[in-house]
Amino acid sequence: MNQNMQPIFILPEGSSRNTGKSAQRANIAAARAAAETVRTTLGPKGMDKMLVDAMGDVVITNDGVTILDEMDIEHPAAKMMLEIAKVQESEIGDGTTSAVIIGGELLKNAEELLDKNIHPTVIANGYKLAAEKAQEILPKLGKNVTPDDVTALTNIAITAMTGKNVEMARDKLAHIAVEAVLKVMEKTENSYIIDTENIKIEKKEGAGITASQLVNGIVLDKERVHTGMPRLVKSAKIALLECAIEAKETGTEAKIQLTDPRQLQAFLEHEERALKDMVEKIISSGANVVFCQKGIDDMAQHYLAKKGIYALRRVKESDIFALAKATDAKVVANINDLTQNDLGYAGLVEERKLHKEEMTFVEDCKNPKAVSIILRGGTKHVVTEVERAMTDAIGDISAAITVGKYVAGGGAIEIELSKRLRAFAEQLSGRVQLAVQAFADSLEIVPVTLAENSGLDPINVITNLKARHDAGEINSGIDVETGGSKDMIAIGVIEPLKIKTQAIQSATEAAIMLLRIDDIISASKMHRGAGSPQMSQNMPMGM
What we know:
The protein has two domains: 16-144 and 408-522, GROEL, domain 1 (Orthogonal Bundle), CATH 1.10.560.10; 218-249 and 256-367, 3-Layer(bba) Sandwich (GroEL), CATH 3.50.7.10. β10 (232-241), α8 (261-285) and β11 (289-292) form a beta-alpha-beta unit. The strands form seven sheets. Strands 9, 10, 11, 12, 13, 14 and 15 form a seven-stranded mixed sheet that branches. Strands 4-17-20 form a three-stranded antiparallel sheet. The protein is built from 16 helices and 21 strands. Helix content is 46%, strand content 17%. The two termini are 50 Å apart. By secondary structure, it is of the alpha+beta class. It is elongated and about 95 Å long.
């Protein structure tokens, strides 16, 4: 064989390659860095982050997915932590921080096993086994909940909002969230369907959080089209139109030659008559409120105002469908088809001013399947964080009702699950047993973090909790005020089961995927403006 053989390059110049343990360590370090970033935000005593973008816009939050999303993460492994948070957010709306820190801890403990020369595949198999066992154990630790358990649902909402800068109005916001979810909930034969899209949230600064309210109908960020229209309509009969109230234009370019001024007059009179006919059609249907998805001609506005009809134009399609669900009106595509049977009902339609803006309130609907929540706050940043808290609460209540179970919060469920997984590990043999034990240890990061963020000694807290759980107190969690332990279900610190099952599933799958990577090949640096992201050899995480 020729000893002077030249090395063979299969990658373009400037590309980098990271293989074996160094690749795994680089991925684990980046993912853990992302997890550590959000870790201090967990729990009722968690801290907030201030994120400033390139434009100088400020976001102040302790919401895990918002923090990771705003950080503009570059490293691909750290991006997987963001994916965990995004999946958790889309599935439930809450529990993003817990999911991310469990994922980070699974990777940290995996690194220790890698140092003992345990193969990544063995660790991945152990984690998969442990996750499956956890999904089997968790429902057994849950308590049943139905839509009639308003106290339990309210406690779930309060738990979701704790630590979210809404402490002063937490109880009121929790009741609003529960009432909103129960209104839009639909029952099928043996389950409940809750589409949270049917809960419309409007944010307005300028008042305290306690001024937030639930509207038994829909709030539209629109004002009436004509000042001659009534500001308030009681016992409103509502027409929803997809079509415009305007003179029809020809579909093609047309040139009309007029040879006589009277022809022009006739042409204008014809347009006016067409508009009058449209308005007459609305009046004959019995409607006294019209919401139009497209435009309303100035002349038509005048006729509608003369007849005392309240009208809005260019209403968003999503709002039209929300109004249909709230008022039980049918959306009409052709004004000639409008009849009395197509009209919806609302006890009150009124134009009101909120923070210098005119808004239309459609409320007192009979059995609305779409409702609105108006959130207030002293500043834009406050009201945005109130919205995140409300979204978390709505997601938690929906998850609790659809799955029908809740579990103890305050780290209780993680300690009990960790204990049971260790017992399961003892039934296994070989190196996979170490991986299951590492998985069990990883779950303790939640109570450890809760203790640290509350200024407590985590070793004392965890030792005390483990002793309680060994004594059979399976709902015993951290009392963040005293550092002791309490029955979390008894004091109302509860969370939907789905938060835990989803967090463990997402975190485990992401950890396994990262562990199975042993080669990172990054493209050569592109010239500035080439439109492709750059990645250096050690691939730092951009923030």
